[in-house]
Specification:
By secondary structure, the chain is α/β, with parallel strands linked by helices. It is built from nine helices and eleven strands. 34% of the residues lie in helices and 17% in strands. A hairpin with a 2-residue loop joins β5 (136-139) and β6. It is globular, with a radius of gyration of 17 Å.
Length: 287
């Protein structure tokens, strides 16, 4: 989507997606007030987040996303104020640690769209991830309803230049009622006004089925689609990202490969998304 001036939200337009961007995840240690909080001081959390982000940036990641991954069990939607405060400091630390041109994003688990947009807006992040965007899902947090209307209206209220990345039938969840992948993708874009979609496997670490990516891309060809998890186990640090880039010619050749080989992790930083953009050259479209 584009906002009033015709520019893509977050400045993530055609040039960004043409690179088939790799997005690195910064998984924050348990934050204060979470079930496992207190294992590390907030200053240690911030230092770890900054170090992970620098590792990804130095390795050539095209963007970095920060999320409260180790806060599980998560709040269902609205997280408590102390989580918002801690995540704001973490996102600000990451913003200061990486080059100004590198886009950063925010995901407030499990589904706090308002908090994510607010943090992104005040910290200069350029996109957010929203796990349950349209429809409703039965999750380990209970029943979560889609946040599309909340997200779009709150972005407008703040005047936030932040792109909305929406999961399609998100992992660790079962859709309430009968759900068709293609219909969920169309609803997210055409009715929910999502700027990009994310397709993942059934759980964290589970590979994304190439056929699912094809199916989504076939019904929203003009919308960027990201692969939430490559096809084989892959945890690259800085060196790993460089090797990903060296093998992009294989993706250009149309092979269904989303990773190269197993890598040793550097800190908690991981690459977990790869874009399948407008022409989706890494995946053949069904005719």
């Amino acid at each position: 989507m584009a906002h009033g001036g015709g520019e893509a939200y977050g400045g993530l337009g055609a040039n960004f997606w043409a690179r088939r961007p790799l997005v690195g995840m910064v998984h924050l240690p348990p934050l204060p007030g979470s079930a496992r909080g207190g294992e590390a001081s907030l200053n240690d959390v911030l230092a770890q987040a900054a170090a992970d982000a620098r590792a990804l940036a130095e390795g050539g990641a095209d963007a970095v996303m920060i999320e409260n991954f180790f806060d599980a069990p998560f709040a269902k939607d609205a997280v408590p104020p102390h989580t918002i405060a801690a995540m704001t400091r973490a996102v600000d630390a990451v913003r200061a640690a990486v080059p100004p041109h590198l886009p950063i994003g925010v995901n407030v688990l499990r589904n706090d769209a308002r908090a994510a947009i607010a943090i992104a807006h005040v910290c200069g992040a350029r996109f957010v991830r929203i796990n349950v965007y349209v429809g409703a899902a039965v999750t380990d947090q209970g029943l979560i309803e889609g946040a599309a209307r909340t997200a779009v209206l709150y972005r407008r209220e703040l005047g936030a230049d932040v792109a909305l990345w929406a999961d399609v039938l998100v992992k660790h969840a079962a859709p309430l009622g009968v759900a068709v992948l293609e219909e969920a993708a169309k609803d997210a874009v055409l009715r929910g006004l999502a700027d990009a979609l994310i397709v993942s496997g059934a759980a964290t670490g589970a590979p994304t089925a190439a056929e699912d990516v094809r199916r989504v891309k076939s019904v929203v060809p003009a919308t960027p689609v990201l692969v939430g998890r490559p096809g084989r186990r892959n945890r690259p640090g800085a060196a790993g990202i460089r090797r990903w880039r060296n093998r992009r010619h294989q993706l250009e050749a149309g092979r269904n490969r989303f990773t190269s080989r197993r890598f040793r992790p550097r800190a908690r930083a991981r690459i977990t998304m790869q874009a399948a953009v407008a022409k989706a050259s890494a995946i053949d479209h069904p005719h």
